[in-house]
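Colleagues,

For the teaching module next term, I've prepared a clean inverse folding example: a structure given as tokens, and then the sequence designed for it. I'd like students to try predicting residues themselves before seeing the answer, so please don't circulate the second half yet.
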């Protein structure tokens, strides 16, 4: 169970804002989980407290200097045997399975990179794992840290209440979620699918399963490699409906 989140970041105010947002923020603001930031700038020597420098070998941008970053990481990791994770475009892709493992730690130690990256000797010396959100460009590790912090806190017991079990279900099934509707029954000439108004709970369950299967097949066929469809699923997929 997660009780401490330590974030190494040049933007501690940005990260601290997370405790003001939503149910996961509540778990931070009421102290069930403590959020602490470690700013490399506070560990930088010299009048300018500089945390970056030009890359050896040339090229654009700046690199985070090793010593202030290393001191901040060591403070964040002190008195703990938990792994140190850095967020970077070179990391392993985060998915719900890796979140479940991160969420099971006592202390989550996240290092946010900025500029072109961090001095590789710090990675060699102090970093245990490297995570990425995917193949697109963020301005810094803080955006990824925010996502990982939220996803990890929502798995802690008591944070979400009743929403949680359903949510867990849809992910552990490995399929995309079905469409959702609420009142009114007709909105801008569009009707809610009739089956959802029928009160026939078995039919509703079949419809939702079929929608999940169809969406996954069309949008994320890669996900179907990790789910085993049974005979019922195959029959549902083969059904045709008016309007398809
Ligand atoms: C445009 C700069 N790029 C030159 C090839 C490299 C680059 C350096 C630093 C690109 C992005 C970043 C900052 N990104 C992260 O720190 C980051 C990230 C991401 O950009 N995408 C997905 N996941 C992550 S986790 C951390």
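(Answer key — instructors only)
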């Amino acid at each position: 169970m997660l009780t401490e989140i330590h974030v190494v970041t040049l933007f501690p105010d940005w990260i601290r804002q997370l405790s003001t947002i939503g149910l996961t923020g509540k778990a931070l603001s009421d102290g069930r989980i403590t959020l602490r930031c470690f700013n490399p700038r506070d560990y930088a020597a010299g009048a300018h407290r500089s945390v970056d420098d030009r890359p050896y070998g040339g090229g654009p941008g700046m690199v985070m200097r090793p010593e202030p970053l290393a001191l901040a990481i060591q403070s964040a990791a002190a008195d703990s045997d938990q792994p140190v994770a850095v967020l970077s475009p070179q990391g392993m892709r985060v998915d719900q399975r890796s979140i479940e493992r991160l969420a099971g730690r006592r202390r989550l130690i996240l290092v946010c990179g900025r500029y072109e990256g961090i001095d590789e000797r710090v990675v060699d010396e102090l970093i245990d794992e490297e995570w990425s959100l995917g193949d697109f460009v963020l301005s810094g590790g803080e955006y990824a840290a925010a996502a990982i912090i939220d996803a990890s806190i929502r798995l802690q017991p008591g944070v979400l209440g009743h929403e949680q079990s359903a949510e867990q279900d849809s992910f552990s099934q490995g399929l995309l979620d079905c469409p959702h509707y609420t009142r009114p029954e007709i909105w801008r000439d569009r009707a809610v699918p009739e089956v959802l108004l029928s009160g026939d709970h078995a039919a509703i369950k079949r419809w939702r399963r079929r929608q999940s299967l169809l969406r996954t097949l069309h949008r994320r066929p890669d996900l179907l490699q990790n789910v085993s469809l049974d005979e019922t699923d195959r029959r549902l997929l083969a059904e045709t409906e008016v309007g398809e």
